[in-house]
Amino acid sequence: MTDVFSVSVIVGILTSAIRLATPYLYAAIGETFAQRSGVLNLGVDGIMLVAAYGSFYVVLKTGNIWFGLLAAIIIGLLMGLLMSFISVTLKAEQGISGIGLYMFGLGLSSLLFKTTIGTVKTVTGFQPVKLPLLGDIPIVGNIFFNHSLLVYGAFLLVPLAWWVLEKTTWGLKIKSVGQNPAAADSLGVSVERVRYTSVCIGAILAGIAGASLSISLLNLFQDNVTAGQGFIAVALVYFGGWRPFGVLWGALLFSTVNAFQLWMQVLGVKIPSDVAIMLPYLLTIAALALSTNRGLAPAALNKPFERGES
Amino acid sequence: MFKRLIVVLVLMAVLVTACATPTATTAPAETFRIAVVMPSATTDMAFSQSMWNALTAIQTEMGGATALEIKYSENMFNVPDAATAIRDYASQGFDVVIAHGSQYGSSVQEIAKDFPEVTFAWGTDVNTFGMNNVYAYTAAAEEGGYVNGVLAAKLTKSKIIGVTGPVEVGDAKTYIDGFVQGVTAVDPTITVSKTWTGSFSDVALMTEAAKTHIAAGADILTGSSQSVVGSIGAAKEAGNVLWFGTQQDQASLAPALVVASQVYDWTGMVREIIASHKAGTLGGKTYTLQLKNDGLKIVYNPGYALAADIKAAGDKAIADIISGAVTVQP
Amino acid sequence: MTFEISKKQTKRQKFDWASLFFNALLPLAGMLIALLIGAVMLLILKVNPLVAYAELVKGAFGNVSGITQTLVKATPLLLVGLGICIAFRASVINIGGEGQIIVGAIAATWFPLTFRTWPGWLLIPLTLLVGFAAGAVWGFIPGILKARVKVNEILSTVMMNAVALQLMNLLVRSVLMDPAGITAGTYLAQSERLPEQVWLTRLVPQTLLHTGSIIAVVLAVLVYIFLWRTTIGYRIRAVGFNPEAARFAGINVPFNQALALTLAGGFAGIAGAIEVLGVQHRLLEGITSGYGFSGIVAALFGGLHPLGTIPASILFGALLVGGDKMQRAVQVPNSLISTILGLVVLFVVGSALWSRRWAAKRQMDAAKNEEPKP
Questions:
Q1: What are phi and psi of C32, to 5 degrees?
Q2: CA-CA distance, B147 to B303, in Å (whole number)?
Q3: Residue B235 belongs to some domain of the structure
Q4: Is B246 helix (H, G, I), strand (E, B) or coil?
């Protein structure tokens, strides 16, 4: 039995963790945008499923992975518009509209899969791409620099999201609309337009999260292929304190412990598998409980805005 | 808001029933009618699909939908919903109602006594509740597991084999236990390493589990449940990792890497149930799919060039199990 | 809160037919839009939508079997929904229903199997209590984490759901596994069948309707009394209505929120216990059937009022049961049902806007009419 702490095992764990974290990163960073502007979108998993189906179908039929990615983006946008319409324009209770969107997405993806494909098939999606020079660094190269483009994209998204939120006027608008929409409104910011945009950004990223599963990491589609990852992603937004780097930390923590428990099982460590599987969830709660640096929730989160109401 | 919803639904009911035409559920007198209730999708590449494949194959064999009418309800993982479906189909005059899920047992026990002219078949379990219109069926998955194990043990070069499973229950457990026995029978020094993902549907975690096995040196993988499509994908990505399947012929997913699959072939059983029903026997028997009665088949993948002597070892294992020379413990 | 306004309104005025009609028209319009989109999908699948929808209504209300099945499904929805009502009133979101149902079901299986010789009249109430307690613990943990270390309850409840599922897997494949399955070599993912004296009585022969439905309605009334007629209930509602004001009034906000989460967990736990005692008679995989989430929808459709959740659960249950019947009758894939239901939820919840605006306008008009003339 290989020593659990040998180099090859650690490399294996970290490489797995980076792969596992990818869909969570896309979906959670997307949800961060939506929530920062004040909208809770619980339908992320539904968006991921329809986009996973759509991108898979396009790649299956055309063989072109970029068309597949585009399909995921378009699907994300459409479902984002639906969610925005219901939650922002119609000011519906966001918790349920999210669950409704999830039910819709789950049903639609299965329906379309069954009627248009009918059985599980595989495609050749985004393949791992070794970065020149960086990829040749011993040990570190294998962990970080030998992944598919969608994986790199997820990690590059984090500093990009931070920059948008912290360093652009657009980010300022998003945050102000989420913190105090009445004040933002009085300053001439269109609360509705900002929220539409953030929710749609979130939905597009959720779509890419779905594609990262069906045309990159797994290269297949099956009923309920996300298995609830969208909900974990939403939870990670809270863990990360509504900050992109906090979300990154949460996604990595969760995924690393997950990869770790898989390795423990493979190496035959004597722990019941069910307890091993619980570890990422328990440790995520523990990590948040023990941390002192918490982000502040957007004050207007989950409250529809009506001019004239407070 | 609830007041409004009451009015809504009443209005809807009036509107719809006023315009609707009645459904016809009758079929030509000669048509044999089978209804099946399943806990997952007909496309799951696993348990439900195996029964669905068998029924559609028999339908073609008998001459199409006019000879055999099949109605189905899938994704019935909620047992009371499934019970309603089973009872509904029974009351619509179906000849045979198949409750294809081990969680449906109590429902079958309750419903079968109300419909003495309907044949109920359910599995996987062995209990017919002493009723003469109930069949029970199960699959001795450990048998095919053993054969796969023998083949795998002879094929592995790294002497490390990885198993990716969902939860250690049911035929996932029995298949894998049989597999381990097969490996040990050939070479007890081979390491068989098992991971359980805790979910029947989490493909992403199953894929990662498979990749972990591969990174730890496994050159052969096997596993069970609908989510193993992920493991097969991981084997394909690694390029030289072989796969052994169960419940379904999984060769289509990785034509160059799947060595063999244990296939659940329910057609023999279904044929017998139909024939018995026509002859007047409605139940009272337990079927076990085995290598012996052709209910379990080891399907070698023609796309993989299996060395003749290894195939011979596999065939010998099959013969031994059939003859009783080897007993596999579930 | 809008519900308070419209409740006050109807108490003060004579029965408002116009308002009722208008209020009914809007969600009806919403539901019709959803069903229209569903009809288009049905047409694409070559199914007559009118026939299909007729089957839906017949399936839910058309015969004894349908009506009882609707009530059977409504029961766990109501129980989970009651917990959601309490939690939402304290401004806490409980997405942990799935996990709380599971631990309630585990407890309600382990207890009667351990004390299998005890008589039914003792075993049933104790088992329900044990189920409540287990669910309450599963709600207490996120509650105390929120109160003491400010861990957001959405994070903790989502994580606890997964932990509960693995806990059930662990137990059902080891200590709680049905011995019959072990001897037969089938190793099914279920517990032993519970002793008959702990089964809830079936009310209608050849159906699954059981006394748990009556228990649920009684509990709904109790929750109403609790929230509106007790001091603790008042505090919980005050915390949700205006946490700052409540704090100034000396109410311990974190404590009451933790209490609300604990109670919400307890009710979901009872839902799990009642599913085990009344329907399944054992613990098995899939015992939750998503009630942890659909209970939230039922509670919100019911206006977050315990008594309102009763008809809301029945209607939501009817949609689920009717949907299944429709699937069987016209043989559409049942993912179509889920799609249509999702659209119904989206559009009905979206139509609430105009109801609120209408109610607010009526309120303003009524107030204007009462101004003293100069």
A1: -65, -40
A2: 19
A3: yes
A4: strand
Q: Transcribe B25-66 into DSSP letters.
A: ----TT-EEEEEE-SS-TTSSSHHHHHHHHHHHHHHHHTSTT
Mutate to test the interface with A, among B164, B199, B212 (most CBs of A within 10 A): B212
Does residue C35 contact residue C52 with C-beta atoms inside 8 Å? no
Query: Does some domain include residue B163?
Result: yes
Mutate: best of C5, C22, C328, partner B, most B CBs <10 A = C328
Q: Which residues pair with B287 in a beta bridge?
A: B137
Are B233 and A220 inside 8 Å of each other by CB?
A: yes
Write the pLDDT tens digit of every residue in C159-187: 999 999 999 999 999 999 999 888 888 88
**Quick check: is B3 in a domain?**
no
Q: How far does B73 lie from chain C, in Å, by closest CA?
A: 6
Residue B151 and residue B89 share a domain: no
Instruction: Quote the pTM value.
Output: 0.90
Please check whether residues B127 and B276 belong to one and the same domain. yes
pLDDT, tens only, A107-134: 999 999 999 998 888 898 998 888 888 8
pLDDT tens per residue across span A195-234: 999 999 999 999 999 999 999 999 999 989 999 999 999 9
**B90 and B235 in one domain?**
no
**Which domain range does residue B237 map to?**
141-257+304-323
- Locate A260 and state its tokens: 């770790």
CA distance B225 to B172: 7
The H or E element that residue A114 is part of is helix A94-116
If one counts the domains in chain B, the total is 2
Q: Any CB–CB contact under 8 A between C340 and chain A?
A: yes
B196:A262 CB<8 A: no
Same domain, yes or no, for B182 and B318?
Answer: yes
Domains within chain A, CATH numbers bracketed: 7-118+143-290 (1.10.3470)
Distance (Å) from the alpha carbon of A289 to chain B's nearest alpha carbon: 26
CA distances C40 to A160, C44, C45, Å, are 41, 6, 9
Q: What is the pLDDT along chain B (330 residues), one digit of tens a residue?
A: 555 555 555 555 555 544 444 444 454 557 899 999 999 888 888 889 999 999 999 999 998 888 999 999 998 988 888 999 999 999 999 999 999 998 898 889 989 999 999 999 998 888 889 999 999 999 999 999 999 999 999 999 999 999 999 999 988 999 999 999 999 999 999 999 999 999 988 999 999 999 999 999 999 999 999 899 999 999 998 989 999 999 988 888 888 999 999 999 999 999 999 999 999 899 899 999 998 888 899 999 998 989 999 999 999 999 999 998 888 888
C-beta atoms of B204 and A8 within 8 A: no
Residue with tokens 């209730």: B37
Domain chopping of chain C, boundaries: 79-309
Which chain C residue lies closest to A275 (C-alpha atoms)? C166
- List of chains touching A (3+ CB pairs within 8 A): B, C
Chain B residues with CB under 8 Å of A271 CB are none
**Chain C from 169 to 188: CB within 8 A of any B CB:** 169, 172-173, 177, 180, 184-188
